[in-house]
From TrEMBL:
Pfam families registered for this protein in UniProt: FAD_binding_3
Identification of the protein by name: 4-hydroxybenzoate 3-monooxygenase
UniProt-listed NCBIfam families: PRK08243.1
EC number, as in UniProt: 1.14.13.2
Start and end residues of each FAD-binding domain: 2-343
InterPro entries per UniProt: FAD-bd, FAD/NAD-bd_sf, RIFMO-like
Tree of life domain: Bacteria
Keywords in alphabetical order: FAD, Flavoprotein, Monooxygenase, Oxidoreductase
GO molecular function, one term: FAD binding
Record bears the keyword Oxidoreductase: yes
Length: 391
């Protein structure tokens, strides 16, 4: 098989890239190791920055998102039983975010790709990327029990943190920046209307909790749990009891309970691989960087990377200049590190580290009070949450 851009992975990064390239008249082939059902059901991110929603709309993938997505103009910070709302449009000159699940973004992009785009092969596992330094890189892959080769002009590794693309960068050229956190998130989906109309980020001495939603009838809730916790170790009733404790307020706010339909634990990690490009191999999304989910940045960063790549390739076609492709890694990393910083700030602002000292507790509360009382601090949070602009 031969194509211009070989894309490994049909998560949000790979699927959107295929769509952007197709719209620019550039052909691609997407290889995805899992089946369609798995990709469409994998529960992950749920917050789209305004810039991400704009990109999906411009790519012709925003119709259902605009019908079913929920526009959110703020979040609530909760600490010491008090509530503080951060008003996004007021602090950013009009920006907001959209609650629309990653599963739905993927479903929309898969449907478009199968209808109008180039080949999207499910059950096609990339085994290795070879010849990244040559003009003709290739991807070896296995599909329907047979090994095959995809010859490309460019390969984009959109294959997530555990993929193969990153391994093609020689160890001597790779630099990894990493931090793991001694806690994770126990997440549930519940068939109950959200108890608040905006996301609630709660800092509590027992640990962090987040109230989020997937739709007006489905709640998504998270609890900070110790690293290595198994989802099955918590009974549904225990989860609700703990959520109630951490979200408690001084007023008459109440948490509504409902049937839990899914339960999982997400580890928390910050990770950046530099560079994001090696010859004609480009890394995008989780293949190159991971953020803890507190800042809701993972999916949005993946979108930023593939937009940068698609624009750079279009620029090459329009002008003959490879300048933007050459600076892909530096351009992406500037935005990536802002998102890493923001996600780290949000994580350390809201989670209680095991063994935190009374001094650290007081500092954390002082940081939260600063956001609640200073326009400048609140603006910084609102700008970070609604998204850093694409260059
Ligand atoms: C459990 C979990 C919960 C999360 N929750 C949030 C959240 O609440 N908010 C938030 O902002 N972010 C969250 N994230 C992060 C966010 O979902 C990711 O940043 C986003 O999925 C990145 O998209 P991607 O396309 O780069 O990678 P992925 O979505 O990981 O897609 C990679 C794709 O590549 C495929 N693949 C892997 N290896 C191969 C191979 N060898 N050959 C072919 N295909 C391959 C995979 O099957 C997958 O479909 C979460 C992540 C996880 C893991």
């Amino acid at each position: 098989m031969r194509t211009t851009v070989g894309i490994i992975g049909a998560g949000p990064a790979g699927l959107l890239l295929a769509r952007l390239l197709r719209n620019a008249g550039i052909d691609s082939v997407v290889l995805e190791s899992h089946d369609r059902t798995y990709v469409e059901r994998r529960q992950r991110a749920g917050i789209l920055e305004q810039g991400t929603a704009d990109v999906l709309r411009a790519a012709g993938a925003g119709e259902r998102m605009d019908r079913e997505g929920l526009r959110h103009d703020g979040i609530e910070l909760r600490f010491e039983r008090e509530r503080h709302r951060v008003d996004f449009p007021a602090r950013t000159g009009g920006s907001s975010v959209l609650v629309y699940a990653q599963t739905e973004v993927c479903k929309d992009l898969i449907a478009l790709q199968l209808k109008e785009g180039g080949p999207l092969l499910f059950g096609a596992e990339a085994l290795a990327v070879e010849g990244a330094r040559s003009d003709r890189p290739l991807v070896r892959f296995r599909h329907e029990g047979r090994e095959d080769v995809l010859d490309c002009d460019y390969v984009v590794g959109c294959d997530g943190f555990w993929g193969v693309a990153r391994k093609a960068v020689p160890a001597g050229l790779s630099r990894v920046f990493e931090r793991t956190y001694p806690f994770g998130w126990l997440g549930i989906l519940a068939d109950v209307a959200p108890s608040h109309d905006e996301l609630v980020y709660a800092r509590h001495e027992r640990g962090f909790a987040l109230l989020s939603m997937r739709s007006p009838a489905v709640s998504r809730l998270y609890l900070q749990v110790p690293e290595g916790t198994e989802a099955g170790a918590w009974a549904d009733g225990e989860i609700w009891d703990e959520l109630e404790r951490r979200f408690e307020t001084g007023d008459d706010w109440r948490l509504e309970r409902g049937p839990v339909t899914s339960k999982s634990v997400t580890p928390m990690r910050s990770y950046v691989h530099e560079p994001m490009r090696y010859g004609r191999l480009f890394l995008a999304g989780d293949a190159a960087h991971i953020v803890p989910p507190t800042g809701a940045k993972g999916l949005n960063l993946a979108v930023g990377d593939v937009v940068t790549f698609a624009r750079a390739l279009e620029h090459l076609g329009d002008t003959g200049s490879a300048e933007r492709l050459d600076s892909y890694s530096e351009t992406c990393l500037r935005r990536v590190w802002q998102a890493e910083r923001f996600s780290y700030d949000m994580t350390t602002l809201l989670h209680r580290a095991p063994g935190a000292s009374p001094f650290e507790d007081r500092i954390q509360l002082a940081r939260l009070r600063r956001v609640a009382t200073s326009r400048a601090a609140e603006t910084d949070l609102a700008e970070g949450y609604t998204g850093f602009p694409l260059e």
